[in-house]
Design brief:
Number of helices: 14
Structural class: mainly alpha
Radius of gyration: 22 Å
CATH superfamily of one domain: Homeodomain-like
Helix content: 40-55%
Distance between the termini: 30 Å
Strand content: under 5%
Largest sheet: 3 strands, antiparallel
Strand order of the largest sheet: 3-4-5
Length: 361
DNA sequence: AACCAAGGCAACCGCGTATTA
DNA sequence: ATAATACGCGGTTGCCTTGGT
């Protein structure tokens, strides 16, 4: 409840770190691990608050940080995850293992956001700004659903985090020999990866496997209507050896609706997948992300002609501006579905390539 | 060469939440 | 059950650099 007074103390230094301070912090952590951040500055002989030390370490001194320009792949990852998760920088950062959440946040704010905006895409919703045009055919509803998905995902992340913590606790009890965080590949644990290390194998991988299975099933497609379970529903709870988690914060009932939905006649990666919220919210996730993927790719492959799905859609007016295929109506459904499939494939690729300790999957 | 504006990044601030007493 | 403490996260700020005039 109360707030930490650590930074209010007088006599503590603020502002840029000097090389000497860096050296002290580095030396101390390498020898002892960070332990309690609050206690660290005194022990390390630093006139800084613990918070400042933690920040300096996680954003700059950690040895596993990659600096410099973001690759195209990294940009793509950021944009796609941002479309899904919003400003959840730490979660996004877990999929870019050598980047810090702060760096990603800065990069988003200074580069990607502007680039999106310049192309007429709302960086918050990842939709074309003149999306009003879409509302008539129900796509704005889909956008709203996407946001709903993001909230849902948020709740899921929280549940996972709790799960992991508990598993970690249990694991710690089983083998209480890990004195310092540094003892294990420190990742020195980026703030988020710390959480995940221990409990993960028990609790998270099945989730991932399940997710992957679903994706495989889906890509084999044809048989529309598989009854897909969401990652969360899997998390909820088929796990046997993990600590039984408390109910996730949001949903008193998260369930997946089968393919009885609207889109089962199409060949989709996530065909037949619907998300049901406590309010019995029901929709297909397909079109939700389809739009943004189109624009994401447009953004990344701006001049790339192999981005077929959009360029084919020539009557869109091409550019990010009005694009969105608005009309799309009947004729371009196929493009949408193709886009959608690509989108989910890329997300699934992310899942597949994500570090095993990612709290996200 | 000097000034100014914009961009980029490191660091700080404050809030939410988990943990502990 | 409650309050205090500690940590992590996201938003914001401020300084430094770069580019333009």
């Amino acid at each position: 409840m109360g707030r930490s007074p650590c930074c209010d103390k007088v006599g503590l230094k603020k502002g840029p770190w000097t090389p000497e301070e860096d050296q002290k912090l580095l030396a101390y952590i390498e020898e002892h691990g960070h332990g309690s951040w609050r206690a660290l500055p005194a022990k390390a002989g630093l006139q800084r608050c613990g918070k400042s030390c933690r920040l300096r370490w996680t954003n700059y001194l950690r040895p596993d940080i990659k600096r410099g320009k973001f690759s195209l792949q990294e940009e793509q990852t950021i944009i796609q995850l941002h479309a899904l998760l919003g400003n959840r920088w730490s979660a996004i950062a877990t999929h870019l293992p050598k980047r810090t959440d702060n760096e990603i946040k800065n990069y988003w704010n200074t580069h990607l956001k502007k680039r999106l905006a310049k192309m007429g895409i709302d960086p918050v919703t990842h939709k074309p700004k003149n999306d009003a045009l879409l509302s008539s055919d129900g796509q704005s509803k889909n956008a709203a659903n996407l946001s709903h998905m993001a909230q849902w995902e948020s709740a899921r992340l929280e549940a996972e985090a709790r799960l992991v913590r508990e598993s970690k606790l249990r694991s710690h009890n089983n083998n209480n020999n890990n004195a310092f965080p540094l003892a294990n590949p420190p990742g020195y644990a980026s703030s988020s990866s710390v959480v995940s290390s221990a409990g993960r194998n028990n609790s998270m991988d099945p989730l991932k496997a399940h997710w992957n299975n679903n994706s495989n099933n889906c890509s084999n497609n044809n048989n529309g209507g598989g009854h897909l379970e969401s990652p969360t529903s899997t998390l909820t709870f088929s796990e046997t050896n993990a600590v039984q988690p408390p109910p996730p914060p949001m949903p008193s009932m998260i369930e997946f609706v089968g393919s009885s939905g609207l889109h089962h006649q199409h060949d989709l990666s996530m065909e037949g997948t619907s998300w049901t919220s406590p309010e019995s919210f029901r929709t297909t996730s397909a079109n939700n992300v389809m739009i943004e993927e189109g624009f994401t790719n447009l953004l990344l492959n701006n001049s790339d002609d192999h981005h077929r799905s959009l360029s084919d859609n020539s009557d869109n007016g091409g550019g990010g501006g009005d694009g969105s295929g608005s009309g799309s109506a009947a004729g371009s459904d196929d493009h949408y579905y193709e886009d959608n499939k690509n989108y989910w494939n890329s997300i699934l690729n992310l899942v597949n390539s994500s570090p095993p300790d990612s709290p996200m999957f």
